[in-house]
């Protein structure tokens, strides 16, 4: 054995494990089949702007220990995510708050907003929401659901809102105060200089091979490490023996523009179904940039099939049951530990990813 650990995936989960194990004096080989480290948090410098190659990544957490942990590797700025929604040219503040209700209905007070939502909830006849549509209607009423949720969600997930679990929409704050902060968390920001340098620092002291797929590497090097940490897709690891889990994939289309300010905000969501992308990111605004040019990325969701990148697990009941079958196989495999968004098939944010990795590392 040449290494104590073979870590598959140089994303945030793999890099956290690598950092912790190196600190304990263990040797780690980290592989990634992409051409770079960082996984989905990878940022690259284009026109002196840190571009979030795989979609907007805003670090937010309520866990002080995790905030302090990530701050070892970078200084964070005071960016607060406040996306806006564009519905057929009408602009609304997100998340759903008094600014949104004021624009939607012309009302000014929380009582007025509550009254309208309650009337719309009663009209829809929902008492015990069983799916995303019912959850959204009972929380926000029909106007908000139809203009700001239905189209966006159905593009994002590729199915009718009635077929989606309610928890997806519960991620978003819904408040009766004038507050456009997209998150409720105590700590929030963007690492100054981008995420890639965080991952570089985490991987110091490890051997790293990019452009290297685990499955072919394993064949050629069956005894390279005594244990493997696998952060790729768990169904792929087991050669889809019980069938495929479902994922959503994304296409990112990036353009360099000859303007210093394209949309006036880092994130603009396009909430009608007819516009095929879900959002446009203008990267410079994450770091309050004043470069002469701008870089924007449109995000197009699409269905996943083998060979595409899997970005989001589709955590409905059918897939969760299938995942449990794969997990039972994984639990019998002592030499491999599965982790991260794809290895655990969970919609982890960055803070939860680090938290889960630190928990695994503490037992190794
Ligand atoms: P990944 O980053 O996916 O890393 C896994 C790595 O494993 C990949 O690099 C992959 O190439 C590699 N790999 C897989 N299979 C193999 C193989 N067979 N051989 C070699 N390598 C392999 N979180 C937030 O907190 N805030 C946000 O604003 C936010 N925005 C997001 C926006 C989008 C569009 C997406 C998709 C996610 C977002 N997240 C956000 C979540 C965040 O990206 C994840 O929490 C985090 O990246 C998970 O890290 P990971 O290491 O588990 O997975
Ligand atoms: N959502 C919506 N309208 C929006 C933004 C989000 O309906 O303008 C819904 C959509 O179902 C999405 C979920 O809220 O999947 C969670 O949104 P979030 O921004 O957290 O998604 P992510 O950044 O993880 O893609």
Automatic annotation (TrEMBL):
Gene3D superfamilies: NAD(P)-binding Rossmann-like Domain. GO terms for molecular function: flavin adenine dinucleotide binding; UDP-galactopyranose mutase activity. Pfam families: GLF, NAD_binding_8. Keywords: FAD, Flavoprotein, Isomerase. It comes from the Bacteria. It is an enzyme of class 5 (isomerase). InterPro entries: UDP-GALP_mutase (IPR004379), UDP-GalPyranose_mutase_C (IPR015899). Residues 147-347 form the UDP-galactopyranose mutase C-terminal domain. GO terms for cellular component: cytosol. Its cofactor is FAD. Its EC number is 5.4.99.9. Belongs to the UDP-galactopyranose/dTDP-fucopyranose mutase family. This is UDP-galactopyranose mutase. The gene is glf.
